[in-house]
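Record format v2
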Amino acid sequence: DTGVSQDPRHKITKRGQNVTFRCDPISEHNRLYWYRQTLGQGPEFLTYFQNEAQLEKSRLLSDRFSAERPKGSFSTLEIQRTEQGDSAMYLCASTLNTEAFFGQGTRLTVV
Amino acid sequence: GIQVEQSPPDLILQEGANSTLRCNFSDSVNNLQWFHQNPWGQLINLFYIPSGTKQNGRLSATTVATERYSLLYISSSQTTDSGVYFCAASSGNTPLVFGKGTRLSVIA
């Protein structure tokens, strides 16, 4: 296993369209996190899963955002009716209760 | 929740110089990590260091948990060390909280 993998690496979408990102964690890791990072800022927490259960959501996660982790393996993050303010880097991380490892991120641009 | 503050926000060094980056956190932690964000945006793990001291080549880190701070030392800096360094901390089972980062520029 080579680490956390995210797909796609880049996404350009028109305002109002829906987008979906995928994250494949390190295989034995039980926790999976989604973060968002805007220019000049540190990553901000969005939501996390322990196995298939979504345990916490940030207030940043509006009702246009939904995340799933079926079967406790890969996870998807969907953004509906995208807005220009959704433009950011979306980062996924996984951990086995200690050190967290991050994927390469998906850079979303909403035009 | 935990607050994480990093200083300085920006640092410019001549190649070969040493530097110290600081991370203060507001509560006791059981996870503290240092990352280097590469130009493509990926967060590269440097240290997992909730307490104590670790060294990896020219980099070392120390966390004094009782005083709620961590330091990242970079010795003999190289241009490839340039980028943004993040500290992130958490307590219990809460998610990592990141600081705003220190942007390091090493000039030849």
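The first strand of chain B starts at residue 4 and ends at 7.
Chain B has a mean pLDDT of 96.
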